[in-house]
Prior knowledge:
Layout: E1 5-7, H1 17-21, E2 26-28, E3 34-36, H2 47-55, E4 61-63
Antiparallel strand pairs: 1-4, 2-3
Amino acid sequence: xxxxxxxxxxxxxxxxxxxxxxxDVFYMGDDGLAHVKEGMETAGDRADVQEAAEQCPGxxxxxx
Length: 64
Ligand code: SF4
């Protein structure tokens, strides 16, 4: 089963690293925080999503 990806808004610091690494999965919202694009919630298996999770300074990208 595909791994799911989500962002914990309490941990996101809004530096847009994830949107640079995987722009088709993540976007920056008007709230200044990153979000997972609609329909991309099961992209947790992708290498770029996992890379973004590793690079995220807030450990806000949750893959499960
Ligand atoms: S890399 Fe992490 S802290 Fe930075 S915008 Fe993305 S989720 Fe937020």
